[in-house]
Amino acid sequence: MLGLYLHIPFCQAICSYCNFNRGLLDPNLKRRYVDALEREIRESPTGPMLAGPNPRSADTIFFGGGTPSLLEPEEVRRLIDACRDTYAVADAAEITLETNPETATPERLAGFRDAGVNRLSFGVQSFDDGELQRLGRLHSSERARTAVRDANRTGFRSVSFDLMFWLPGQSPASWARTIEDAVALDPDHLSLYLLELYPNAPLKETMARAGVSGGATPDPAAGVWAQSADDEAADMYLDALASLDQAGYEQYEISNVAKPGHQSRHNLKYWQSGDWRGFGCGAHSTVGGVRWKNLASTGDYVDRIAQNAPVAIDQTILSPRERCEEALFTGLRLATGVNRQHILSTHGVDPWSQYGDQLAPFQASGLVWSKGDRFGLSRPGMLLANEILSIFV
Length: 393
Known about the structure:
Structural class: alpha/beta
Number of strands: 17
Distance between the termini: 27 Å
Number of domains: 2
Number of helices: 15
Helix content: 40-55%
Radius of gyration: 21 Å
CATH topology of the largest domain: TIM Barrel
Shape: globular
Largest sheet: 9 strands, mixed
Strand content: 15-25%
């Protein structure tokens, strides 16, 4: 079944590390954007990418951003209704709303739940107030705790939140406390992301002014704007996962752990070569080996929808080899790895025969495992995923 992704590009403030397609909230533009987004969804099955008389079935809807929780519950309801009216959305579909803690009042959470959302993904990032301030987050650690507790009381099927490590001024001890605080809230799902310093992000510029470069040994003169050394970041990752193992979570992807039955069904589509339709400015789609994206500008997107003009650009038909390489590249992010026979039957390639010689040094070092028809990355191998997976691209 398809996954449906809806991009909401509005934020109350721009986080210092963010490189996503987003902008500051403009209430009038938001109103026009929701109208345009609903129209794109309702007209999508007859568009050039999915021509045909019948809509495809879908079993996940994901509101990403930006800050989707800046939408009013009634706006969320309108968009979910548009998806259900246009696609054959399963009754038990997973419907996720990315949510910032400062927007999550009990009343709004109840409204989102009544609108059809059954899974929340909170952008918590840290339970250290100093770290949150350096990231430009608007919430405090206590506000995050309150939001998560309110979500649990409201009755969502799953509650997830994101955490980040290798932050400026973050020590292994403070990261361990964040993991402890996260476990104490008993979420259903957690995502652990290594901070990436994008060239156009304000945080990188701030650190540069402080004379700090990523991966350097903390400089006392730079104070809170220094990052730990690379090997310390690796230990933070492994130690966090070990703690989450003990707390009953199962790692299912490089950056994601969950309680049994609470894996992100939508994100699994990305890693298991599924199909998804993306709606909104900058959204990407992949269906049947065809990939395209929408233009990125929010204003241009709204205007083109109003003019009944196409918003999809950069259509690419993936070659059989590209589809095979991508199945390996994304599938090996999963803790269960990939199945050689599945790749062979789907893509006509035995990956171990094709790439075994290149994988052999990593296997000898314990970074790649092989068992029966499956092979994958060990946890230490996940730390070097970019290097290992570059074999396939």
